[in-house]
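Quick question about two entries, pasted in order.
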Amino acid sequence: MVEEVLARGSILGRYVPARYILAIMGSIGMAIIYGLKVNLSVTMVAMLNHTAIANRMNDAVSISSNSLNSTDFEICQSPGEETLTIIEDGPFIWSEPLQGTLLSCYFWGYLVSQVPAAKVASSFSAKWVMFFSVAINVICTLLTPVFTKMHYGGLILMRVLEGVGGGATFPAMHSMIASWSPPNERSVMSTITYVGTSFGTAISILLSGVIAANCGWEAVFYIMGGLSAIWMILWIILIQDSPNTQPFISQEERDLINSQLGQKSTKATAKNHIPWKKVFTSIPFLAILIAHVCSNWGWYMFLIEIPFYMKQVLKFNVSSNAVASAVPYFPLLILSIVISKLLDTLKEKRKITTTFARKASTSLCSIIPGLCLIILCYIGCKHTLAVIVMSFGIIAMGGMFSGFLTNHIDIAPNFAGTLVAITNSAATIPGIIVPIFVGFMTKGNT
C-alpha cells in the first residue's frame, strides 16, 4: 500500500512540481480567508436599512446648528436611470460608527493571533496551523446569519473569531514557503501564494453582490462558507510541511530543494532562540515593518471602504457596486505574477539585486495607490473616471507580493514566520483604524 502511494506520488510530482501544488493550494487558502473577510463589506450594503438610516441622519442634521449647508458639497446621482427606482433596504439600522466597529472587529482577533501562530507553525506544523485557520473561518461564516439576527454583538463575536483564524495564515504560509522555495523562485512562489488574497477579494466582492441581490444577505454566508469547506479535504491529502515528508514529489524535485536549502528543515532550525534584540534593532527589518504598515493603510482603505464609497457617494446599486469594486483585482492578479516572474528572471541573470527588486515592488504598491486616493478626493461625481482611478490604485497594490511581503524570507528564512507575524500584527492596526476613522469622519455626512 505504501509503495502504491509513493508510486502515485512520484507520477504526480513528475507532471506538477510539489512546491507549486503547495503554492496553488496556499493561494486558494488565502483566497478563502480574504474572501470570507471582505464579504461583509459588500453584504453589509444589503443588510442595512438605508432609508431608515438616512432619515435618522437627516433628523440629526436638521436639529444641528453646525451642520453643513447642502450647497457645500456635491450630491451624486445614480449612474443609469434604471437604478434610480431601486430601493435596497435590509433589516438592520446601524449607525456609521457601529458599522465601522463591525468592519474593524475582525482585526481585533487578527492582531492577537499572529505571533502565537508563528511559534506553533515553526515548532509544530505550519500545515495544520493553516488548516485550522481556514476551518475557524468556515465555521464562523456559516454561523454568522444566526448570530447576527440575535444581536450585533453576535456578529462581532463571529468576526473576532474569524480574525483569530485569519491571523495565523501569513505566519503559516511564510514558514512553508521558506521550507519549500529555492532562493531564485521566492518571488514567484510568494506571489502565487499571496495573490490569492486579491483573487479571493475579487471573487468574494463579485459573488457577495450577486448573491445578496438575488438570494438575500444570509445566502452569502451559507454559500461561501459551504464551498470553502472543500479546500480543507484537499489540503490534508496533498500538503506536507517539508519536501522530505511529501509523498507526492519526484526525487529530482526533492533533491533540487534540499541542495539549495540544505537537508535541515526550517522546523528544526526555527526551534533555536529568536534573537529579539537583533530583530528590533535591524534596519532592514524596521524598513519592512514601516513599509508593511503604511502600505496596509492604503490597502484597507481600498478593501473595506470602496464598496461604501461606491454606494453612498457614487450611488451604485448592490450589483453594480460589486462588479466595479471587484474588477480591478483580476488585473492585479496578472500584474503581480508578471512582475514577480520578471524580477526573478532579472535576478537570476544578475541584472538586478534582490534589494532593488524588493524596493521597486514596494514603491509601486505604495506611491501609485497613494496618488490615486488623493485624486479621488477631487473627482466628484464623475463615475467612470472614479472607477478608473480606483482601479489603477488597486492594481498597483499587486507590487506588495514581490516587495516587502517576500522580504522577510530574504533576510531571515529560518525566522520568516515570526518576522511576518510581527510586521503583519503592526500592519493590522490600519485595518482596525480605517473603518472607525471613516465612520467618525462621515457621521451625519456620508
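Here is the second entry:
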Amino acid sequence: MANNRAAKSGLAAEAQRKINSKYSEELAEECLEWIRQITGEPENTSGDMDNFFEVLKDGTLLCKLVNNIKPGMVKKVNESKMAFKCMENINAFLEAARQFGVPAQETFQTVDLWERQNLNSVVICLQSLGRKAHNYGKPSIGPKEAEKNVRNFTEEQLRAGQGVISLQYGSNKGANQSGINFGNTRHM
C-alpha cells in the first residue's frame, strides 16, 4: 500500500480486496481526463489506483474542479500537505458535490480517498458530478441524465385503466385445487 498505515490482514484484507476489485481503471482514467479538460491538470491521467490516489489525495485538485465548474464553491483551498488540511479540502469538495446535486449514495467518505479505503466510491462520485457539469456549461462525462417526463391523464383515461386486468400478474385460467395436499392424509 502507498500510505503509511500497516497492511491489513485476515478478514480486513479480504474485505479490502473485494472493494478494490470493483475499481475500474477505465472509469478512473475517464474521470481524470475530464478533470484535466476542465482544470488543465493533472499531467498523468492514468487510471491505475496508485496514480488516481496520488493525484487526488490532498483534495486541492478536487476543490479546483468544483471552483472551475462554478466559481466560489470552495472559499478556501488549503495548499498545505498536513493531514487535517487535506481532509478539509476533501470535505469541502464533498459539500460542493452535494450542492451540485450529487445524491448522497453516490458520494464518498473522506477516508475513502485520504486513507485509500475505497477509491471506487471516489470514481462513482466523480462520474455523478460529471453528469451534472453540463448544467453549468462544462463538458460532462458518462451517460446523459434523464429528464422529467410528466404525463397528464384525463379522468376518463384513468377510469378506463381501472377496468383492465393486467396479464402481468398472470392468469388463473384452468386453475383448480386438484393435486394439492398438505401434510399426511387423514387416517380413520
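Reply: The first helix runs from residue 10 to 21. The chain has a mean pLDDT of 85. Hope that helps.
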